[in-house]
Backbone:
């Protein structure tokens, strides 16, 4: 199977030469999402709001690939400040059930002054 682009009108459009996600052989690689409200074009105000919006945006991209958050096997969380970890983690935990995806969390400088950016890898179940 060749790779193909996955895109959703329910998530912000890419602002550069990248896809919202790419699927290859049943695996979906989602680009990082920030807490950008597509309706307003603005970032949510808090780390909790931005985490929720970033995960909602990821969920929309996954939905376009025929997947859900339960299909996520790996995420990477990029935090502007590790002091935000506990608040991000509390909101993040609402989106996943055991077995939880593997995760890496690092301090970084997400785009547009965002407090958090989250990417994901999801896998289609074999039938």
Residues:
């Amino acid at each position: 199977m060749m790779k193909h682009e996955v895109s959703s009108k329910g998530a912000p459009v890419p602002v550069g030469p990248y896809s919202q996600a790419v699927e290859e052989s049943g695996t979906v690689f989602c680009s990082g999402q920030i807490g950008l409200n597509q309706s307003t074009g603005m970032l949510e105000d808090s780390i909790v709001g931005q985490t929720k919006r970033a995960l909602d945006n990821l969920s929309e991209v996954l939905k376009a690939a025929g997947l859900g958050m339960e299909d996520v096997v790996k995420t990477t969380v990029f935090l502007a400040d590790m002091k935000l970890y506990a608040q991000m983690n509390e909101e993040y935990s609402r989106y996943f059930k055991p077995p939880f995806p593997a995760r890496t969390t690092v301090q970084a400088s997400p785009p547009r002054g965002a407090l958090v950016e989250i990417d994901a890898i999801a896998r289609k179940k074999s039938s």
